[in-house]
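Hey,
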Amino acid sequence: MTGARGPAALAVVAYHLPMDSTTPSTTNWFGLEALFTQGDLGVDFFFILSGFIIHHVYRNVFAGSLRMADVRRFVLYRFARIWPLHIVTMLGALTLYAAAVLLFHRMPADAASYSPSSVLANILMVQSWFGIGSPNVPAWSISAEWAAYLVFPFACWLLMRLPLVAWIGLGLAAWLLTGTEFITHPLGRIATGFLMGMVLRECEGRFALAHRLGRATGLMVLGLLLAGCWVLPDTALLPYTFGFAVLILALSNPADWLARLAARRPLVYLGEISFALYMVHAVVWSAFKNLLRIAAPGIDPTSYLPVLVGTVLSLIAASLLYHLVEIPGRNMLRRARRPVQQPEVQHGMSAAEARPAR
């Protein structure tokens, strides 16, 4: 599972760098533009994966009882997982904003995202609940994930009292809603994806679905998802979210060939730093492309070499932040508490940026 998160984060990077909406691009990406423009779907994959893993780890904690001590500990652990890196990358975005205004006398188009009220909402991680922007664009999904974390213990306790047919019905409803305007709001997008992940894990636990799939299922589904970028309309989300669900099941099967590939150490490490990559790449890219515009105004930032350099710089920054901010910050906030049940899982989206709505 961890090894699958790295490529999903890179898909979001590919959506933002070569397809930068602020830079008219004439670069020929050999037909890969269709793939890049669907990179924001990496967020939907993260949301489904997040619901799947969180339900896997904490299902038994909240299935029998809803003790407030467990709820508080769960919320604290999830807060410690996402908040330190969120704050540091937001400070990076605010620093770039100050430099643009004070040194270069340039005002960003989304200046409202840097207002005191926006900063306060981002500190509390509630910005996307109320349609408020973020200095660091990817943070909209962190706000959505935070809402899911606050609701999960109560939702899990309630859902565990429903018959399996109700679970399946809710899962189908959540999947169908991904094809409607319901997901144009970040809370709608996280609600459908996270619930799909929970239902998927519950059904997997009861029917061992993953072990009923063939060894080539993961590769076949991945191939179909990639092919869909060229043959499906941009608005056709239902095939993708269904494919993500099957792909997650395939990755749960130790015999699956794609799961074995994702378990290799380089991909696992990329998955470990994927949250940092997701959160920092927009800040790194903003700094790099604007410096490039000043130092070499004739170079298209979305051409091959700048995009490659921007991606490498983002990976380096992600690795540094993972070791220097994410892990120490998480440990510092959790130091006085013990795990709820198992060692903490990695953040799903977040965990990781893409456009907030389609």
